[in-house]
Hints:
Elements: H1 2-6, H2 8-22, H3 25-40, E1 49-54, H4 56-62, H5 69-82, E2 87-90, H6 99-111, E3 116-124, E4 131-134, H7 138-141, E5 145-148, E6 161-162, E7 165-168, E8 171-174, H8 176-181, E9 191-192, E10 204-206, H9 207-211, H10 215-219, E11 225-230, E12 238-240, E13 246-248, H11 249-261, E14 267-268, H12 271-288, H13 294-318, E15 321-322, H14 326-343, H15 346-364, E16 368-373, E17 378-381, H16 383-389, H17 393-396, H18 408-418, H19 422-425, E18 431-438, E19 444-456, E20 459-468, H20 470-484, H21 494-510, E21 515-522, H22 525-532, H23 534-551, E22 557-560, E23 565-570, H24 575-592, E24 595-597, E25 600-602, E26 606-613, H25 620-637, E27 642-644, H26 647-668, E28 672-681, E29 687-698, E30 702-704, H27 710-713, H28 719-739, E31 746-749, H29 752-755, H30 760-771, E32 778-783, H31 784-789, H32 793-802, E33 806-812, H33 820-824, E34 829-832, H34 834-837, H35 845-859, E35 863-866, H36 872-881, E36 885-886, E37 895-896, H37 897-905
Parallel strand pairs: 1-10, 1-11, 2-3, 2-11, 3-5, 14-15, 26-27, 29-31, 31-32, 32-33, 33-34, 34-35, 35-36
Antiparallel strand pairs: 3-4, 6-9, 7-8, 12-13, 16-17, 16-20, 18-19, 19-20, 21-23, 21-26, 22-23, 24-25, 28-29, 28-36, 28-37, 29-30
Helix pairs in contact: 2-14, 5-6, 12-13, 12-14, 13-14, 22-23, 28-30
Amino acid sequence: MGSVSKYRSYLLVLFALAAILLTGAPEALRNALTDVRFRLMQRQASGDIVLVAIDSPSIDAIGVWPWPRAIHAKLIEKLARAGAGDIAFDVDFSARSGGESDRAFAQALQRAGGSIVLPSFAQQVDLHKTIHLNHPLRQFADHSWPAVVNVSAESDGVVRRYPYGDTFDGGFLPSMAAVLAGKHDAGKKPFWIDFSISMASTPIVSYVDVLRDDPVAIARLKDKKVLVGATALELGDRFNLPNGQIVSGALLQMLAAESVLQGRTLRAASDLVRWAGPSLVALLVLVFWRRRSALIRVAIVCSFSVAAEIVAFFVQAKLSIILDTSLLHLAAAACLGAITLDEIDFRDLLGRIADRRFQRITMSLGDGVVCVDQDGAITLWNPGARAIFGYTAEEMIGQPFARIFAGPTAARAAFSVLNLPVEKLTSAGGTVMELDGRRKNGEMFALEACFSGWRGTDGRQYGAILRDISDRKREEARIRYLAEHDTLTGLANRNALQESLCTAIPQAQADAREVALLAISIDKFQLMNDMLGHEHGDEVVRAVAERLSSLVKAPNLLARLGSDEFAVAICEDNAAEQATQLAGRVCRRFMVDPIPIGMREQSIRLSVGLAVCPRDSTTADELIGNAHLALDRAKAVKRGGYVPFERGIRNELESRLILEAELARAIERNEFELFYQPQVTLGDGRLIGAEALIRWRHPERGLVAPFEFMSVVNTSSISDRTAFWVLRTACRQARSWQERGHTVPIAVNLAPSQLRSEEVVLVVGDVLAETGCPAQLLELEVTEDILVEDENAVEIFRRLRDLGVRILLDDFGTGYASLSYLKKFPLDGLKIDRSFVQNLQPHSDDAAIVESIIGLSKSLRLSVVAEGIEDRATNELLLRMGCKQGQGYYFGRPTPATEFEKKYLGNACGEEGSEVARRCPTAA
């Protein structure tokens, strides 16, 4: 095992070197080194070959491309007169051009006596890599020498080698450069072009200058070999050369021809020479391995590598041989790597790197980081730990770890973790604990510690990340308090009540005890808020909470559930009896004892609902819900008192919900109908109008009277839809009767929800326009509670009257409106409630009230209609009191529209024989 470790670094290097050889890196390095030598050994062109360039000035001067071949014929004549030698064209002549132009070029070739070289080029024609050789046209080939111009790029896209020629169809075709140089051999392999020949030293003349007989250009052509080819960028014939050069195809042909002429056709050394270099390096390693110092070995390998490269430079410059030193340099680099690895103690190095990295990280952390050895002594103390505990690193290094904990209990808990197996401490996230810490000044605080462990060179080691979580604990306590308490009163909130009941109810059920809940509400709290402001309302809530707190004793829980609602959970023995007594005390105390609010005393009454578990419910949600149902009943029928929950309350609510669902379906199925009750003049029974009254024709129960469902309709979501349907149906009926010659104003009851919406005026206007009903045929009846509750009613009434609609105050005398409302609101008439009319007797209290209402109406110029007239005596008494209009069963019950027409519109109103007229005193 020891002998293997000696060679471990070299084995690693050998594997790395083998991997590099497989990647193709040696070839890339060989090319790069060869290119550098070309750049360092610059030489001049021979000047024996001149390039006649088809450049941009030539294209601009002649003005068309491709040029007519007559121009090339003219060029041949110019070159012949200039005394040029061999002429080669790097221009495609494989396709026909103009007939005359082609003949002119062929004749020029013939006159040149076969000294012209024309190009051929191989081309792939299909996916099967079939090669086709494009020759010049036959008429040109008969009078010229053929030469192939194809070149191939290396894998990196750079052209480095050039062929002497190629074999096509069993025959050898020389390359253009070989023909120009006069040296071509079918047996030779492609050679490396000598790119050290300076491109700038290559003689080039412009095509157009030759055509113009420019003396300078002509003088440069005498006794020279000429290559005609394109150099213009717009012709796009470009090749990548070493050292970042990009040249045209013609210049590439020139460089290849120069390489042949100068004997600079470079060739690669044999593979034996290629592998000799790395072999010598390996031999050097074996000879000097560990017999000399690492520095001497490095110097020897580097010197050998530099010497090899100098030899390769001169061999390439003088002997035109390319020595491949890539493997030698790679072997030298591998050797240097092996020497480096051999000299490094990696375990120690990695340990030092890890230690330094750990030190940098821990010293920059805001958390406290403490390291402890297996004896419990502190070995590392970072600035974060100093900020938490107040001790410096000098004070704590070497001290026992237990010193930072408050008391032996916390220390024992910490060491119990450190005594765990290392495998558990190295698990993801470590082991986290909350302990009590102690600062240098003796202060105790909440400390979070995350412990971890590992096996080091010195045995078991431990680390702890420490955080001062005092602020977090305080914030958690504050959040917990806010989550469980009401911010205004400091009482428990709904969440705390729910949690308390969820805990108390199972315990009480297990002990066969009861849990009672009082739901408490401040009567008319919203009115106080609206009249006196929300700040006053908050003071009232705080004062009520304070008084309730004095009445509710532990272990019972007082909570605030909403703006004006409280709850008391009673978990004592005899909870139901205790709750009943407490409810009575609460109601009596608030009824007789006003609450001081600022500089005044406020009379407050509370309504209380009471529910008991398990008598009324079995869960916290049911108990809270039943207590609220009892509270709703108390606010409805017993304000200022308490109501215990009864099953009938929930049954009534369930019946109401069922009725609401049926009513919603009823309006969808058109089960509602309008009945019409006649309104007449009491003196002669003349029909003056009708009141539209809704009826429900239930598919199973038959005709349902309004008192059974209208209270639910007016407080449900279908209130507006139902009221709109009544309004539109009544207006459509009034218009229908008008079209048949009967002018019958129809009174419609306006729902409270409609009047509270400012859009009621637009709705009424739209209905009148839609049905075509004149506004004077529509009367809207409103109740007194609307006048009291809605401040916007005055403006809405004015806008409705502007439409031409009459407004009547219905059920007058039964509400809470003061007489000032009759002056304030723009009304057209009053309707005396039936409760004053049905048992009306002379000299009775009802008679006095009715007579006062009639007199008041006359004074205010309001019409008055008496409701509930059921006999002749009542009719005559009202007539004597001065009431001129009325309605009731005496004149006719509410009936459907068709029946109403037969009874009251079949004969002329007031005529003898009319059912209404026969009942009137004058008719008798």
